[in-house]
Amino acid sequence: MKKVVVSALVALGLGSVGSVAAEQYQPAGFGEDTLRYLEAAVAPPALTANTPVASVYCQADVGTDGLTRNVSCYERDGFADLRDQVEEAMATRSFSAATVDGEPVPVRMVFRVVYADLEGQPPVMLLPNLGHMQGDFGYQYSAPQERLDDRNWYSLYRKNDWSQGQPFFSDEGELTRVLAWVNDSGRVISVRSLESHSEHRRDARAVEKALEASRFLPGMVSGKPEKMRYVAVLHYPN
Questions:
Q1: Helix (H, G, I), strand (E, B), or coil: what is residue 98?
Q2: In percent, how much of the chain has pLDDT > 90?
């Protein structure tokens, strides 16, 4: 009789055999004094009524020690000096490391610095996203972060001996952009090309395949993982 009862419990999913707890994620974040440091280190842009906002978009590798490496920044409104200042200021800054189940993991993080002369908005904001999902989650959400301790799309792409694209946005040359949906477990569930010129179609296909094999920390809203868009970008220096 006892054996029958145990078998019934397992069949109903009530036993403990084979159960797997969901991973707990903490994305990389900004150090406590990072915003204060930016305000002191970067000269604010000369904003006008016609251009009341200037945004600098960045990505950085954040190690298990929390230090930022390989910082790249981009802006599209003519504030090149602001971009350069932000990029220099964010290099080797101390962030809070990402963790999975309490263990630190290296990640590639995107973020933006927004300068504004608008009523009701702080003059400087530091946000852990590029704004792709702001309409759905507000402006403070944390975008998906590539895990660098596991397969990540750019290193997989670079394994091709013909690959020449450089990661992230740039004013130099053309772009290849591929959209991925990352679920609440950090898995890529769909991909599609958004932009690729004819001579770079092979790159787009390779990035799609690489994304499908990559791992992420999922996007987060108020401490809860959420399904979100992620855009992989390559540029080609002239």
A1: strand
A2: 87
Residue 220 lies in a domain: yes
Query: Which residues neighbour 30 within 8 Å (Cβ) at sequence distance 6 or greater?
Result: 95, 96, 111, 126, 128
Are the C-beta atoms of 95 and 68 separated by less than 8 Å? Answer: yes
Of 214, 226, 79, 237, give the one whose Cα is nearest residue 152: 214
44 in a domain, yes or no?
yes
**Residue 11, class by beta-carbon neighbours within 10 Å (0-12 exposed, 13-18 middle, 19+ buried)?**
exposed
Concatenate the DSSP letters of all residues of 2-65 into one string.
Answer: HHHHHHHHHHTT-S-TT--PPP-EE--B--TTHHHHHHHHSPPP---SS--EEEEEEEEEE-TT
Amino acid at 119: E
Q: How many CB atoms lie within 10 A of CB 228?
A: 24
Which tens digit of pLDDT belongs to each residue from 127-154? Answer: 999 999 999 999 999 999 999 998 899 9
Residue 189 CA to residue 191 CA, distance in Å, equals 7
Q: Tell me if 217 is assigned to some domain.
A: yes
Would residue 181 count as lying in a domain?
yes
Please report how many Cα atoms fall inside a 13 Å half-sphere around the Cα of residue 76, on the Cβ side.
Answer: 6
Question: pLDDT tens digits, residue range 72-105?
Answer: 999 999 999 999 999 999 999 999 999 999 999 9
**pLDDT mean across residues, the chain:** 91
Number of domains the chain is built from: 1
**pTM above the 0.85 mark?**
yes
The pLDDT-based confidence of 32 (bands split at 50, 70, 90) is confident
Q: Residues 167, 154: contact at Cβ < 8 Å?
A: yes
Task: Give the range of the structural domain holding residue 226, as residue numbers without chain letter.
Answer: 25-235
CA distance 179 to 202: 16
